[in-house]
Design brief:
The protein has helices at 73-76, 83-94, 160-177; strands at 14-18, 25-30, 107-113, 116-132, 138-149. It is α+β, with helices and mostly antiparallel strands.
């Protein structure tokens, strides 16, 4: 809330991390400030490498780290398996397990508004730390997130993420149905070429 008496209450965007099976909320990462811009890009989904479709939500190891800031650990944790998961994999490796299953992290939901809640995978995280206190703790940081929307083609129809994507898609279809239909004359055409 701002100091101005008639200022609107601002809704913040953020990420909600939930357990894929139960749907229990593990963590809410509210973005401190509303972004000035939100860039979106849609591209056709294609198979990327052998076996990619079998484990679209799995992490194979820790992310490459290029910066530290404890207050951003909640975002960074989306790119790392937990210590317990890594220790379990180490124990499997030491016991000679034939195949070590990649780790499945909590399902991330990007919340931009009440009508825009969509399952995502954090593809890239960039942090620029600015201005530091006397103990060299950053007091301001710029964060850039690259999120990939997960459709039913990724986790599947029976996965909680697939169901959440279907709800998001239904909302988009309802919104598209409200758009005014254009006329061919607006495009300089009297009819379609034959």
């Amino acid at each position: 809330m701002t100091g101005f008496p008639h200022s609107p209450r601002l809704t913040r965007a953020g990420l909600v991390l939930i357990e894929p099976g139960s749907g229990a909320v593990r963590r809410i990462v509210a973005l401190q400030y509303a972004a000035e811009t939100l860039s979106r890009r849609l591209s056709a989904q294609a198979v990327e490498g052998e076996g990619a479709r079998a484990h679209p939500l799995r992490l194979t190891g820790s992310a490459v780290e290029t910066g530290l800031f404890p207050a951003l650990a909640a975002l960074e944790s989306m790119l790392h398996p937990t210590v317990a998961q890594l220790e379990r994999q180490g124990a499997q490796r030491r016991s000679g397990s034939f195949e070590i299953t990649p780790v499945e992290p909590p399902l991330a939901l990007f919340v931009w508004s009440r009508s825009r809640v969509v399952p995502v995978r954090l593809a890239e995280l960039s942090i620029t730390e600015e201005f530091f206190d006397p103990a060299l703790n950053p007091i301001r940081a710029r964060v850039s997130l690259t999120l990939r929307v997960l459709s039913v083609s990724d986790p599947g129809f029976d996965h909680r993420g697939g169901g959440l994507f279907m709800a998001y898609l239904q909302g988009k279809e309802a919104l598209a149905a409200r758009a005014a239909a254009g006329q061919l004359g607006e495009l300089g055409l009297g009819g379609l070429p034959t």
